[in-house]
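Write out this protein's structure.
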Amino acid sequence: MDNLKYLEHVVELGKVQAATTPEEMSGAFDAFNGFLGLYYDLAKMELQKAGAAVVIEEKDLTGEKLVQTVSAMLAQPGKLAEMGKNARSLSVDDSLDRITAALLKLVKTP
């Protein structure tokens, strides 16, 4: 992920709590959506790199491509179980606690 883009979105997210007008709130939500897009891109690539997912970029997605990809996965005995195991290896058991703490810190920061 581009660190500068990430930091820009974090700064914009900080404006969410300061937003008082509909225009400010709209801009803050746009920043939040941009942040989610960057996070999604990073997450899907990390899952693929770990062997926990197969990513088909939207620009490359066709019905035929989807059928080929799913068929190839199903044709390999144990492939889905292996992907599930790989996905579980990436999990963070206390992620809910970590996210909650980070959000509370953000909300309490003046």
